[in-house]
Amino acid sequence: MAVWAQLIMNGLIAGSIYALMAAGFSLMFALQRFMNIAHGSSYVVAAFIAYTFAVILKFPMWISFLIGILAAAVLGILINLIIFQPLQKQKEKNNALLLSSFGVFLLVEAIILMVYGADVKSFGLPVKVGMDVLGAKVTPVQLVIICMAPVIFGLLALFLYKTKTGVALRATADNETIAKTMGINVRFMTYLTTGLGSALGGVAGILVALEQNLEHSMGMMAVLKGLTAAIIGGIGNVPAAILGGYLLGLAENIGVWYVPSGYKDAIGFGVFILFLLFRPQGFFGEKRREEASG
Amino acid sequence: MTYLTNRGDTVKKLALLFVVFLVACAPTENKTDTVKVGVIAPLTGELASLGVPTKEAVVMAIEEENAKGGTQIELIVEDGKCNGRDATTAASKLLNIDGVEFLIGPLCSPSILGMAPMANDLGRVAVSMCASAPAVTDAGDYIFRTYPSDAFQAKEIAEHLHEQGYRNIAILSCLNEWCKGNHDVLKENFEALGGAVAIEENFDGASRDLRSQFGKIQEATPDALAFFGFTESSIVGIKQMRELGVELYTLGGDAWNDPKIAQEVGESGNGIQHIAPVITTPEGFAEKLEARTGSPDVPVCVLQGYDTGKIFAKLIKEGATTADAFRDALYAMPEYQGISGPIVFDENGDLKNAVYALYEYKDGDVIVAEETV
């Protein structure tokens, strides 16, 4: 029984991170209409900026984390402003935007490598035996990951569904032209979405860095898992993408009980391929797809 | 007409540039001969903590030999990381563009196994100072190593576990040639001794989440754990193992003879042991190395790196300046007394002998638990 509790807990830890990344992807996709791979840059940059302030400059942890998340949001907005908006103005196809976002991601990764070097960095948190939670061993950082993600998603839902700006944002995502005629500042909404989405990626990056250390190449797997989760859930639909993240985390971690653990990533991508083949609109994406086609 | 005149001028200018280029590139007569030697080691990424000091030890050995006069050796250093792809790219540059005849390195097993076909096809020599995977034995006629094969090490691990009374072990290993080699040889030898392997688990070297693996290992209730991983994944793995409350006796291989692991895991690594070749650092060596690396640590492979540099200088000065002559000289070399121990190659380019010690992590340091095993 304890082993199942542990597997589920491991799934929730991984799922929380995937869900944060997927929520960012989905939020940005809703307005940008392309898969923004550069989202991975926010994940890496937030972790390294937080590390710089917390470990090198000895700032208090929570201030360092806030600075890291802010840096991720600013980076996301800047990338959108400098690269994607001019490309979209030139009516570039989504494939070109996707490729350029991949290029931006690699560039940011290379800059991080140049500045910080390739060796793995650590926040230096003490190693202690985890506490017992429902029969599973969980460390304080893991508990923060598991608890913080739903709080963030709750706040995001409140913002999206209960505030005027959130409603305007969803209206823009639904139909940009009508949103414009309604007087909504679409450009501001795009910045807001990229900033918010990047901040979510930044939170994920910092949480993973606390749990598994940080290195310049940490973003690629996060991008792949976040994208997979977003597509499994239903891209463009934030709650669905979040659920996709948890589904992916649980599938991977429970799946390794039945197959050798070295195939953990293969399980995730296997689920991804199955979804692409049999339910490309995602787990919760049917309604949206019908609307879009209709 | 103007066009033709201009074109004539352009041709003249290009011809002049070509002549200048030829003059500039013409070989100049050196009073002393210089032989180029390539060095490939992981200078970034996984195992850079071993690669950088080992590279410095090679440079130190060559500089010492160059200072004695005679044929000079020019080192060209490339970062091969610790994988076949990057090492092959580095080797391709060194062998095809720089035109070197022999390489010191690549340092890691996956790296040398990746570039070995190219070295054999081109007929160029590569001597690894740290590759220990058993598969390197069959990597080709031009591939050598000054580091013992894991065929010795994993056998020692199996015997040590058995001598300590463990009969039902778990094996956790990463998915590369080094890990797989140790994994297979350990399993074969441990079972031959009458022991059983309760569970075999593995992980991708880039993975930083080994919790599921430890969960499965705990469930299999083994009495000891053999854990093979490189530096970065091992640091995370050891921490997660402790966080999950896994207190099994844990034994690793020579990749764990890296002070960075001990420092990063701190007290949580106490009691974790590994088997690695005996390292008896000569007096004054650590200080000389520290002047270059800024660290007093002498991790595994550094002494082999120094010895490899010395052997290269010795054979080149004796006239082995082509790849084939160098290969023949290595096979024929009588026992060389290096600082890492006696070095003599068998017909596969492997070391004929190896002596191992048992090491242990204690409060952030690597200490010797048993001088020889």
Question: Please, could you describe this protein's structure?
Answer:
The complex is a heterodimer of chains A (294) and B (373). Chain A is an all-alpha fold. Chain A has one domain (2-289): ABC transporter involved in vitamin B12 uptake, BtuC (Orthogonal Bundle), CATH 1.10.3470. Chain A is built from twelve helices and two strands. In chain A, strands 1-2 form a two-stranded antiparallel ribbon. In chain A, a hairpin with a 2-residue loop joins strand 1 (131-133) and strand 2 (136-138). In chain A, helix 2 (39-56) packs antiparallel against helix 3 (61-89) and helix 2 (39-56) packs parallel to helix 4 (94-116). Chain A is globular. The model of chain A is unreliable at 288-294 (pLDDT under 50). Chain B is α/β, with parallel strands linked by helices and 373 residues long. Chain B folds into two domains: 34-149 and 281-354, Response regulator (Rossmann fold, 3-Layer(aba) Sandwich); 151-276 and 357-370, Response regulator (Rossmann fold), CATH 3.40.50. Helices cover 45% and strands 20% of the residues of chain B. Chain B has twelve helices and 14 strands. In chain B, strands 7-6-8-9-10-13-14 form a seven-stranded mixed β-sheet, sandwiched between helices. Chain B has a five-stranded parallel β-sheet with strand order 2-1-3-4-5, with helices on both faces. In chain B, strand 3, helix 4 and strand 4 (125-128) form a beta-alpha-beta unit. In chain B, helix 2 (48-67) runs parallel beside helix 11, helix 3 (84-97) runs parallel beside helix 4 and helix 5 (150-163) crosses helix 6. The radius of gyration of chain B is 24 Å and the shape is elongated. The termini of chain B are far apart. The chains are: A mainly alpha (294), B alpha/beta (373). The interface between A and B is medium-sized, with 34 and 35 residues.
